[in-house]
Specification:
By secondary structure, the protein is α/β, with parallel strands linked by helices. The chain contains 7 helices and 12 strands. The strands form 4 sheets. A 5-stranded mixed β-sheet has the order 3-2-1-4-9, with helices on both faces.
């Protein structure tokens, strides 16, 4: 199967709060860039022959932009679109994630990029030695329920078959109003899964094989 890996990234976060915390990131732009490099390298190692797309929303130096372009098949920087940047840099984390994902999916569609599966990974996290591509290389939606809660789905790593992506894009477009209200992206994604679960096979993977530093604290995610 042909895997398209979408990496969402904001390496240069604004010094503004989120709805639930005053400090958006404890890491500098330089640290976030190095963490995102690790994301990219892990994808190339763990998902060989994949098509890599990076969607960013930062003002980048020439060398940073060159690195992203040279280490991906498709690179989209949304920073210069003021309305998009306003969404990504606002208080709603879900609005930022939803906006970037929606425009990435729109880019994929407009550029007629062919793939069987879309694997989305949040930048700065990386695929660990526990990542098993066999769990993702199928026709199912692959997700992780957070602590087994079907109303809360992990969104730093998931997989959607191509035939589900257009439905997801429409779902995002229909739910921007809830993102503006700061409804959690994990909750919204769980709502989407409940809408499609009767039509598509959904696999809940307990160990995704993802690690990385949490942006807003010194916590470190392993799962």
């Amino acid at each position: 199967m042909k895997n398209l890996v979408l990496i969402t990234s904001v390496i240069n976060t604004p010094n503004t709060p989120l709805s639930y915390i005053s400090n958006r990131s404890i890491y500098t732009k330089e640290q976030r860039f190095e963490q995102t490099k690790k994301t990219i390298f892990s994808v190339k190692e763990k998902i060989p022959d994949s098509v890599v797309m990076i969607v960013e929303c930062s003002e980048l130096t020439e060398s940073e932009a060159c690195f992203f372009k040279e280490n991906s098949d498709h690179f989209l920087n949304l920073y210069n679109f003021e309305n998009i940047r306003h969404n990504v840099y606002g208080i709603s984390k879900s609005l930022g994630e939803g906006t970037m994902t929606y425009h990435a999916l729109n880019y994929i569609e407009l550029n007629n990029i062919h793939y069987d599966n879309l694997i989305k990974i949040s930048g700065r996290y990386f695929l660990s030695d526990k990542f098993d591509l066999n769990k993702f290389d199928n026709d199912s939606i692959v997700i992780k329920y957070i602590e087994g809660n079907r109303e809360n789905v992990f969104t730093a790593l998931y997989k959607l078959p191509q035939k589900v992506v257009e439905i997801f894009k429409k779902f995002l477009n229909d739910n921007f109003n809830l993102m503006f209200q700061c409804v959690g992206y994990e909750v919204l994604f769980a709502n989407f899964i409940q809408q499609v679960i009767t039509c598509f096979d959904v696999k809940n993977v307990h160990v995704m094989g993802l690690e990385g530093a949490v942006s807003v604290s010194t916590d470190y995610y392993v799962g």
